[in-house]
Specification:
153 residues, mainly beta, Immunoglobulin-like, five-stranded mixed β-sheet, four-stranded antiparallel β-sheet, 11 strands, elongated
């Protein structure tokens, strides 16, 4: 690819995990990358569930960008409707330098299926991060009834 056709920004990492660690030396470790989560309930249909302990990690590289830019994260439900977006201003320092967005996922799953987290720079879609929510109905335990006691005399 000719060098003049390369501009940026570029996606280095885009995932959902449980534990992102920023090491003392500045290195980022991403623990338990997840693209599906199972939720449990006792009703036939899934009830809204707040997803806990999930973190969105997006690491970008600047390319030719060298200033503050807006990055938007737009969650999308399985039915295609968008949820409220998050917008952050980040500094692109040029070349191989770039921002790392590390943010908790604030999502109430209202249905099972494939959720997407669309990552935009300005109006350009950079990438999509999938999260499949699977619903598992739990059976309520059926305890055996004790045998009837004979009448006391």
């Amino acid at each position: 690819m000719p060098n003049d056709s390369v501009s940026g920004p570029f996606v280095s990492v885009a995932c959902i995990c449980q534990v992102p660690l920023r090491e003392a030396n500045g290195q980022l470790s991403i623990i338990r990358v997840m693209d599906r989560i199972q939720v449990f309930g006792v009703t036939p249909a899934m009830q809204p569930q707040s997803l806990q302990h999930l973190v969105l990690v997006v690491v970008l590289r600047s390319g030719t960008l060298g200033e503050n830019q807006k990055i938007r994260i737009v969650p999308v439900r399985p039915d295609g409707t968008s949820l409220p977006e998050t917008e952050v201003s980040v500094l692109f320092e040029g070349n191989d330098r770039g921002p790392a967005l590390i943010m908790p996922v604030a999502l109430v799953a209202t249905e099972a299926g494939l959720y997407w987290f669309d990552v935009y720079w300005e109006t350009q879609l950079l990438t999509r991060i999938p999260l499949r929510v699977q619903y598992q109905r739990m059976q309520t335990p059926q305890f055996p009834q004790p045998p009837p006691q004979p009448p006391r005399l």
